[in-house]
Design a protein that fits this description.
Helix content is about 40%, strand content about 15%. The chain is an alpha/beta fold. It has 3 domains: about 55 residues, 434 Repressor (Amino-terminal Domain), CATH 1.10.260; about 120 residues, 3-Layer(aba) Sandwich (Rossmann fold); about 140 residues, Response regulator (Rossmann fold), CATH 3.40.50.2300. A 6-stranded parallel β-sheet has the order 2-1-3-4-5-11. Strand 8, helix 11 and strand 9 form a beta-alpha-beta unit. Helix 1 packs across helix 3, helix 2 packs across helix 3 and helix 8 runs parallel beside helix 9. The longest helix has 16 residues. The protein is elongated, with a radius of gyration of 25 Å. About 5% of the residues have low confidence.
């Protein structure tokens, strides 16, 4: 097996120079770097990641903490981050904690991350003060995507504004009885401290109040931000309201819940949007196929920008800890129409 010493002899340089040239480090003449790369290619030499890590103190790996990798939003953010990291020569190490309190404690409050990753991306979660302090002791750059932690850089959307946009669109269409499917995450994610459900609920309530419209408690139904959760939440909504008090529109906190709601409404013999309009948030890849009016958020861009912030931090460039907020936009389709 070809070793670094063989490449050094072939290129006529020291092993230290070979190591620096292959890792793209400075203080190597361009002619020398090209000679080393050519020798390594001819000899099919592949540097050991462990050896490179020991020599540089860097793993060239970024950790991503995700509540549930199977959800559309989280998967889209990870996809955007991975594309950029891969292009920059970094690997991605995924920590999928899925509401497991022990897994969360082991990750945030022990030395599990120490010397495994150069930087960390936290998706949507809101770490406790103790967890923030524990991560701070690692000394590794950290970014929050889809959430906010004081003094940490973040990339997110304005969830209150996104909800306001959705609800105001329904009000502009003449709807006064508007329900909301959202609320707390499902029991699987209990204690994960998401900010998104609360922010979107706040946007709904503020917009209704600003328009002078009442909100019946029966119109606020909790779900789990999945299609199945939307089905169950919409069933509870219909079961808790009679025809006279039934909403003429539904604002769902995610497109997946909106799709589930549309399915339930049609099963109940109701037409969308003739009887009940439905609006979601996300612009999920399936939203177009369901003709779903929605508020689009750039999930892939959130991941890419989060990864860019981490790579910049590793290069000594700091970002504003107040965070970066990306715009959302209303996408009009055929699931929302004038109030009946």
């Amino acid at each position: 097996m070809t070793g670094i010493e063989d490449v050094a002899r072939e290129a006529g340089v020291s092993t230290a120079t070979v190591s620096r040239a292959l890792r793209g480090l400075p203080r190597v003449a361009e002619e020398t770097r090209e000679r080393v790369l050519a020798a390594a290619a001819r000899m099919e030499y592949v540097a050991s990641p462990n050896a490179a890590s020991l020599a540089s103190g860097l793993t060239r790996t970024v950790g991503i903490v995700v509540p549930n990798v199977t959800r559309w939003f989280f998967g889209s953010v990870i996809h955007g981050a991975e594309e950029l990291l891969r292009s920059e020569g970094y690997d991605l190490l995924l920590y999928n904690i899925t509401g497991d309190a022990e897994a969360r404690h082991r990750l945030f409050s022990t030395h599990l991350l120490s010397k495994r990753v150069d930087a960390l991306m936290v998706l949507a979660l809101r770490p406790t003060p103790a967890e923030v302090a524990s991560l701070g002791r690692l000394g590794s750059p950290t970014v929050v995507v889809g959430g906010y932690v004081p003094d940490w850089p973040s990339v997110r959307i304005d969830d209150v504004l996104a909800a306001t946009t959705a609800v105001q669109h329904l009000i502009d269409l003449g709807h006064e009885r508007i329900a909301h499917l959202g609320g707390t995450p499902d029991p699987e994610h209990a204690g994960l401290q998401f900010s998104t459900p609360a922010d979107r609920l706040a946007g709904y309530r503020q917009t209704m109040a600003g328009a002078g419209l009442r909100v019946d408690p029966a119109w606020e139904v909790t779900g789990d931000f999945t299609a199945h959760g939307g089905v169950e939440a919409c069933r509870r909504l219909l079961g808790a309201t009679d025809d006279a008090n039934r909403p003429t529109a539904i604002f769902a906190g995610s497109d997946e819940m909106a799709v589930g709601a549309v399915h339930t409404l049609r099963q109940a013999g109701l037409r969308v949007p003739e009887d009940i309009s439905v609006v979601g948030i996300d612009d999920h890849e399936l939203s177009e196929f369901f003709d779903l009016t929605t508020v689009a958020q750039p999930a892939n861009d959130l991941g890419r920008l989060g990864a860019r912030i981490l790579l910049d931090a590793l290069g000594g460039v700091d970002h504003d800890p107040s965070g970066l907020i990306l715009p959302t936009s209303l996408v009009r389709r055929r699931s929302a129409a004038a109030a009946p």
